[in-house]
Write a structure and sequence with these properties.
This protein is mainly α. It is built from 17 helices and two strands.
Amino acid sequence: MKPLAGESGDSSHPASWPFRNLGDAPGWVCSLLVHAALLIILALITVTHQFRDRLPEILAVLGERERAPVAEKLETTFQPIEVAEADSSLESFDAQDLVSSLSLPLPLEETPQEPIRVSTKTDLISLESIPTVGSPEFSGRTGVGKAALIAREGGTPESEAAVALGLQWLANHQNRNGSWSFNHTTRQCRGQCSHPGSLNNCTTGATGLALLCFLGAGHSDQTGEYKRTVFRGLKYLLSQMKSSHRDTGNLMGRTARRGRRGGNEGMYAQGIATLALCEAYNLGHSKFLRKPTQDALNFIIRAQDTSGGGWRYNPGDPGDTSVVGWQVMALYSGRIAEMDVPQQTFDGAWAFLDSVQSDEGVGYGYRRPGATPTLSAVGLLSRMYLGKQHGWDPTNPVVKLGAKRLSVLGPSAKDMYYNYYATQFMYQVGGDTWISWNNELRDQLVAKQDKKGHAAGSWLPTCPHGSRPGGRLYMTAMSILTLEVYYRHLPIYARSGDVPIDGGDRPIDF
């Protein structure tokens, strides 16, 4: 029989191997095989030890890749978004689908930062030497700058612990699509926390308010332990922004759209959500946020009452002081971000405040001259943001008298809306009056925060302005923002020592 292909004619020596067995092989072949086996074993041992030694480093690298800044993902996703037709919108856009497509995990809970332990030896830290992150105005929200401002302006480890616990509560009550709702029971809470709000449809306002708390503590879409929480919240806001014709930049929410009358939360939601976008851009300068932030600001600019200079519930309505306050804060933050905000918009807001002021600008009413404590706090703070060129600094007699009157009234045990605005105004004024005000309100808020159960980190709503519609989420966000006052914004007017507050002998008539 002929040999098979590949075989030699000698069946005792297959062509596939030159030797029948190792016994037939020369000595040098056996030596080569033995030494090769030893070399392979030694190599395996060496690689195993190196891998074991570098395992933590490798895992860390993998972890960093998994936690890569979401801004990179966002930029590739949102930069191309352009409205092709005048009547198109993002209303059908599903933020949850986009988040899933980016392969970002959606944790049910986030771990808050540990409370910052600060030294009272602030003379060792020069605020001027603090490196800035994002806009210089926001340099106090992280790192050494934050610690210095907490110590210098009157924060405590207890107040920072309250902020951290509050942020954890907010993160635990974020909806799966990235939003928050004033009816906070719509997610895993399921009624474990009492006092939900009734504004189910005002999700842009609720989301903006919650985001401001995280941004205020230095968490952006790129940095911080809550960066995914912030990212998802921003994604939701952008998914809700209208993008057609004159509606471009509309964040008023479902119940109030341009061209039809809506609820009284419309321009409130616009101002709050726009402020959140401005602060997010200011903090991280993420490119994907610039255009929608400018669009949101443009909507506020277009919505201003052309005759009176104010804003109210719907675009073009004659203004009221409460709604005006949120728009002024958003526009001011937009200007810090070097967005395009016309001076005539600020001039219009100034003219509106002129129309509702009393006592030469110390007191403010709702839609006509008056002097209620809450609206006076809104008006005074708005003047501070708008009025640098008008001489509205802590040495201005009107500012000093306004601070004196608020100081005599003191913080409210129930009205968080008043506390929120008055605290910011008093902080900008500074001096002994600020120290006294802060010590009282800070300790009051820390003591009233829920510390046990599912509600831990939140505050029971007691505010006559917003408690019923805004509920526990509203009260919690306003309390957190008030406790972040030390570092949310640097003082508009440089501190040059304590500024004495002297209201003179004029009567206090709030």
